[in-house]
Design goal:
Elements lengths: L4 H9 L5 E9 L2 E12 L3 E6 L8 E5 H5 L3 E5 L1
Antiparallel strand pairs: 1-2, 1-5, 2-3, 3-4
Protein name: ABC transporter permease
GO biological process, one term: regulation of DNA-templated transcription
InterPro entries: Protein_Veg
């Protein structure tokens, strides 16, 4: 993706409302894969509304630093 936090935020702003799949580090060598819609971006974090039939959580939030360090990987449809 982009190289700075502001570049990542600007890139995600262009994808608001789009479906995505995210792959996140779940800790202790676990990887979590979820799908949903990018609903909001804030100065420090972005929010993904998850598909209810697949996940017990309604939404998750991650920081742009998570994308920069590749702790979270996003793939848009």
């Amino acid at each position: 993706m982009a190289k700075t936090l502001s570049d990542i935020k600007q890139a995600l702003d262009l994808h608001l409302g789009q479906r995505l799949t995210l792959k996140a580090n779940g800790g202790r060598r676990k990887t979590v894969e979820r799908s949903g819609v990018l609903t909001e971006t804030y100065p420090s974090v972005f929010i993904v509304e998850l598909d209810q039939e697949e996940n017990s959580l309604e939404r998750v939030s991650y920081s742009y630093a998570d994308v920069l360090t590749e702790t979270v990987q996003l793939k848009f449809f």
